[in-house]
Amino acid sequence: MAAQNITSVKQLAETPNLSSIPSNYTNPTDETKASEPGDSIPIVDLSLLKSDNADRRAKAIHDLDKACQEWGFFMVANHGIAEELMRGMIEVSAEFFNLSEEEKPEFQPANVLSGIRYGTSFNTATDHIFCWRDFLKLFVHPHFNSPAKPHSFRGVLMEYSERIRGVVSTLLKGVSESLGIEETEMEKALELSSSLQIFAANYYPRCPNPDMTLGMPPHSDHGLFTLLIQNQVGGLQIQHKGTWFNVNPPPNSILVNTGDHLEIFSNGKYKSVLHRAVVNNEKTRISIAIANGPSPEAVVRPARQLLQGGRAAAYVPMKYKDYLFGQQSNNINDKSFLKTLEVQK
After folding, report:
1. Could you tell me if 255 and 75 are in contact, meaning their C-beta atoms sit under 8 angstroms apart?
2. Contact status, residue 303 vs residue 185, Cβ threshold 8 Å
3. What is the b/e burial string over 214-235, where b = at least 16 CB atoms within 10 angstroms of the residue's CB?
């Protein structure tokens, strides 16, 4: 389907008297019902990870290690990012989606590594069934990109993405300690001084048939950690021990999920989490996800310290930007691209 023939979901949802979704959005094979988590979703206290008190820091590292192993998902408490900044990031993202189509960048379904990419679904060049979602993706580190409009977007994005990098840096220091790896070794192996950070604003409008489509199908994220906030409209579901659970975070919380490259680097000790987005027929959901990965040029492999004592590598090496291009250029399908890197036993 040619890019110029594709309509944004926002435009589609605003069609007068829309009572049913087009057939190319119908996803009848996916059951969207989910449970409320019986176990509490793990919480990692960032202030304890920064603590000078050895016992408090040790507890926080234990909590982080357990969350990455057992859930691949957690909430960050005491992250230090102002609620006003988080709310502002969501508000300017809403302003972007409310611009006229003429004021937005053109759809770019083919160039998945473009620094500024506005689109719909996941990748309309390859999608067979479309997702009920519009998106804005921006590469914000090591090179910063921002749309020209709205005018306030750039300043808010620059501050927010920088603060998120600070949170991720603290989390990765905790991870290196929990894995028994020197912090400098991790920084060197993943070339973290030039880490790739990708901002994604997701727009999920009201849907007349929310049980017949998905905002995003089940998938895992590339990179190390993805940090997410939303406009207090639910829709995120994660898979834990084979069961789908709704995630209903309290206000001002940041959700974190482990990515494929943390799974590779930890040699499978930590698992990237499967998650999906469902939609509703009452309110528009906006989420802001920032994927934080190694350098685009880093060849990611299991940490050498984890391969001592005869332990074999569970994944083959691959340059991060090649992985990103391969994953984003294909149909999104669970952890199918990561599986191509698994060493066959």
Report:
1. yes
2. yes
3. bbbbbbbbbbbbbbbbbeeeeb
Report which residue type is found at 7: T
| Tokens (6 digits) for 197 | 């950070």
Task: Give the mean pLDDT of the chain.
Answer: 91
Q: Average pLDDT for residues 76-88, to the nearest whole number?
A: 96
In this structure, the strands spanning 299-300 and 216-219 are: unpaired
> Pick from 331, 270, 311: which is nearest to 109 by CA?
331
Please count the CA atoms within 13 angstroms of the CA of 2 that sit on its side-chain side: 2
Give SS3 for 207: coil
pTM above the 0.90 mark? yes
Per-residue pLDDT reduced to its tens digit, 111-145 = 788 899 998 887 776 677 888 999 999 999 999 99
Structure tokens of 178? Answer: 């929990």
Backbone Cα Rg of the chain: 20
Give yes or no for a cis peptide into 142 (omega within 30° of 0).
yes
282 and 206 in contact (C-beta within 8 Å)? Answer: yes
In terms of Cβ atoms closer than 10 Å to its own Cβ (0-12, 13-18, 19+), residue 14 is: exposed
Continuous segment of H or E residues that includes residue 186 = helix 183-190
CA distances from 182 to 174, 177, 185, 342 (A): 11, 7, 5, 25
DSSP conformation letters of 287-328 = EEEEEE-S-TT-EE---GGGG-TTPPPSB--EEHHHHHHHHH
Q: Are 276 and 219 in contact (CB under 8 A)?
A: yes
Minimal CA–CA distance to 203: which of 101, 109, 286, 291? 286
- The alpha carbon torsion through 277, 279, 283, 288 (nearest 10 deg) reads 20
Specify whether the CB–CB gap between 134 and 119 falls below 8 A.
yes
Give the CA count within 13 Å in the CB-facing half-sphere of 259: 23
Whether 258 shows a pLDDT value over 60: the answer reads yes
Contact 313, 235 (CB under 8 A): no
